Amino acid sequence: MSSSLIRFDDGAAYEEFMGKWSRLAGDVFLDWLQAAPGLRWLDVGCGNGAFTERLLERCAPAAVEGIDPSEPQIAYARAHAPPGAKLRYRVADAMSLPYGDARFDAAVMALVIFFVPDPAKSVAEMARVVRPGGGVCTYAWDLFDGGFPYAVLQEEVEALGFPRILPPSAEASRTEALRALWAGAGLVDVETHEIAVERTFADFATYWRVAQSGPRLAPLFAQMSAEVRGRLEARLRERLRADARGRITYGARANAIRGRRPA
Predict the structure, then answer these.
(1) What is the rounded CA–CA span in Å between residue 192 and residue 100?
(2) Rounded CA gap, 97 and 46, in Å?
């Protein structure tokens, strides 16, 4: 089981590999939140801005700040930010947020918490920077029950004898772990929710290309011989059956949680 730190440093590649999934899950998440307009938001681990832009489009915020440790991701997000938006991106660490207490009305982490080396510290930081009564929320792919968008690929890679690929804090993706983190940060009125989404790829070749671009998968594929890659491709074609138009459609699931800082 491999769990070393994972970094996303290519905004364009991230968009194809995970950004589109992020928007799908993010829309369901925001439907569940039903956030009031006019809030000051902090998006922790904003990556290339995929979810941050959904906040702008869906929630009519007063302002949004996005932070991420990756300078290339922040550069991509800035370059693709809507003109005139009340939006600022900066490079920063989720475990040491560069803001004073009670700066925001809401803090969110979208598909990030399992990448943070110390999730409890990051949740405590989010709770610190929201005002009393403010919201703290996240959603994370269900990594242990087949919810990750590329779970089938990971299963087949593992079946070929390669180590299982997990982020450094994979346990934080479990609903019970999220509840413990929110309780540990002193958050109240905690609720959880399951998110289910589907994505369609134009054909298997498109899926195969995108799937190989992940930050941990790309180096793994580079190590494989042509014969092993061919076996893997054949196994995936068998499991991911195309429809009459050649399209590949399948689903993913995430666990969501929300709570608020006590007034």
Answers:
(1) 28
(2) 13
Helix (H, G, I), strand (E, B) or coil at 117: coil
Amino acid in the structure at residue 34: Q
**Predicted pLDDT of residue 126:** 98
Asked if the model's pLDDT at residue 80 lies above 60, the reply is yes
Residue by residue, what is the 3-state secondary structure of 202-241?
A: CCHHHHHHHHCCCCCHHHHHHHCCHHHHHHHHHHHHHHCC
Q: How far apart are CA 28 and CA 33, in angstroms?
A: 9
Q: How confident is the model at residue 6 (pLDDT cuts 50, 70, 90)?
A: very low
**Domains along the chain with CATH numbers:** 11-146+166-200+254-260 (3.40.50.150)
Percent of the chain at pLDDT above 70?
95
What is the rounded CA–CA span in Å between residue 252 and residue 257? 17
Q: What type of residue is 57?
A: E
Phi, psi for 80 (deg, rounded to 5): -110, 10
| SS3 label, residue 102 | coil
- Cα-Cα-Cα-Cα dihedral sign, residues 164, 169, 173, 177: positive
* Tokens 């494989």 found at: 224
Residue type, 139: Y
Average pLDDT, stretch 107-126? 97
Q: Which of 12-26, 132-146, 230-244 has the lowest mean pLDDT?
A: 12-26
pTM here is: 0.90
The residues facing 258 across adjacent strands are 137, 191
Contacts of 109 (CB under 8 A, 6+ apart): 43, 44, 45, 94, 122, 126, 137, 138
At CA 178, angle to CA 189 and CA 101, rounded to 5? 65
